[in-house]
Amino acid sequence: MARRAIGLELLVLPERSEGKEFETGSTPHSPRAERGGNNALNTLKTAPATMLRIQTKGDNILPEPSDGFISSPYVEDMAKRALAYLKIGYPVHFAGPAGTGKTTLAFHVAAKLGRPVTLIHGDDEFAGSDLVGRDAGYRKSKLIDNFIHSVLKTEEEMKSFWVDNRLTTACQNGDTLIYDEFNRSRPEANNALLSILAERILNLPRLRRTGEGYLEVHREFHAIFTSNPEEYAGVHKAQDALMDRLITIQLAHYDWDTEVQITEAKSGLAREDAEVIVNIARELRSFGVNNHRPTIRACIAIARILAIHGAHARGDDPVFQWVCRDVLNTDTAKVTRGGQSVMKQKIDEIIQKVCEPQKKRPRNPDRSATPKEEN
C-alpha cells in the first residue's frame, strides 16, 4: 500500500518591514517596547483558536486482476449478486466461517466497481476516531509589531490540526470501503457508519468550529463488509442498527471443482494430486460437530509443500503422510477417545479411504462424475 507524506496548509501572515513573529517558547525583545512608558500605546490582540484539517492522500489501493485468481460459476454468481446491491447504493456484508474466501471475494467485487479501495481491518482497540479522524496537535504563533514606535501591537494565534482517517477519506473521495472482519471492532467504534450508510452524511463533531461539521458522502462511495461467526474468539456482536443497514450474503465453502482449481493454481501441483487433497479435506469437514475445518488454506498448504518436495498425493508417499498429519491435525473437531484426540487416527483412515480407489482406477480417469458436493 503506497503512502505519501501529509501536507500541512499553514496560514502565512503578511510581511511587515520591521515586524517580527515569534513561535511559542521564544522571548521577544524590543527596545522601543521597553521604554514605551506613558507615551506608548500597548495593544494586545488574541485571535480565537482555529482548526486546520489535514487530509491524507494516496492512502488507498487499486485492485488488479491476479493470475492466481480462480473465477468459477460459484464465484461469479456471488459477485453478480453483490454488485446488484452495491450499484443501487446498498452496502454488502459477506458473512461466513474462516477460509471461505470472504476477503478475496470482496476485493474481486471491488475491482469490478473500478474505484480505488480503502481497506480497514477490524480491531478490538479501535475507537471512533480511528475510523473518522482526530486532533493531531496544535501550533501557536505570536506576532509583535513595533513598526510605529509609539505603538506596540501583539497578536497571538493558536491552530489545532485535525487529521482525517480512512473512513473520512473514503467518504470524501468516493472510494470503495472494504471493512474486513468489522465485528472484531467494538460496536460503539462503528457508530459513525450508521449515518453514512443511511443518510449519506458523516458527522465530524470536532470540526464544527470551522463550519465543516458534516461531510456529504461522495455518490461513488460503496461499502463491503466481511465478518466471522460470533462464536469465534475476539468477535463482538454487531449492533442491530448497523446490521439492519447491510445486505448479508452468507458464504460457505467453495464447491468441489472450485476448490480443486484453487489448490492447483496456488501450488502448481498436478490436478490429480489436487483432487486427492481436496477430497481428504472435505471428508474431514464432516467429522465432528459444527466443524468448518480444514479450509481451502489447508489444501493450498499441503499442495505447496508437495510441489516443493516433488512428492505426490498418494497413500504410500511418506512426505504426503506427514504433511497431512501436521497440517490437518487440528482439535477443532473436539472428538476424543479416552481423553485423547482421535484426529491423527481419523486422518490416517481418510487418507487410506481416499487413496485406495486411486490405485485401482486408470491414470487419466473420467471426471464426469464428480463427488457429491456439500449443501
Give the helix/strand layout.
Layout lengths: L19 E4 L7 H4 L6 E6 L3 E5 L18 H14 L5 E4 L6 H12 L3 E5 L6 H4 L1 E13 L5 E14 L1 H8 L2 E5 L11 H7 L2 E3 L10 E3 L5 E6 L12 H4 L3 E4 L5 H12 L3 H15 L10 H14 L8 H11 L7 E2 L2 E2 L1 H18 L15
Parallel strand pairs: 2-7, 3-7, 4-11, 4-12, 5-8, 8-11
Antiparallel strand pairs: 1-6, 6-7, 9-10, 13-14
Helix pairs in contact: 2-3, 8-9, 8-10, 9-10, 9-12, 10-11, 11-12
Question: Main sheet, how many strands, which sense, barrel?
Answer: 5 strands, mixed
Q: Return the average pLDDT rounded to an integer.
A: 78
Radius of gyration: 31 Å
Question: What is the chain-wise order of helices and strands?
Answer: EHEEHEHEHEEHEHEEEHEHHHHEEH
Structural class: alpha/beta
- Terminal CA distance reads 38 Å
Strand-residue proportion: 15-25%
Give unreliable regions as ranges.
Answer: 1-55, 362-375
DSSP E strands, number: 14
Which percent range fits the helix content? 25-40%
Task: List the keywords.
14 strands; elongated; disordered N terminus; 5-stranded parallel sheet; 5-stranded mixed sheet; 20% strand; alpha/beta
Mind explaining what this structure looks like?
This protein has 375 residues and is α/β, with parallel strands linked by helices. It is 33% helix and 20% strand. It is built from twelve helices and 14 strands. Helix 8 packs across helix 9, helix 8 packs parallel to helix 10 and helix 11 packs across helix 12. The protein is elongated.
Give a summary of the structure in a few sentences:
With 375 residues, the protein is α/β, with parallel strands linked by helices. 33% of the residues lie in helices and 20% in strands. The chain contains twelve helices and 14 strands.
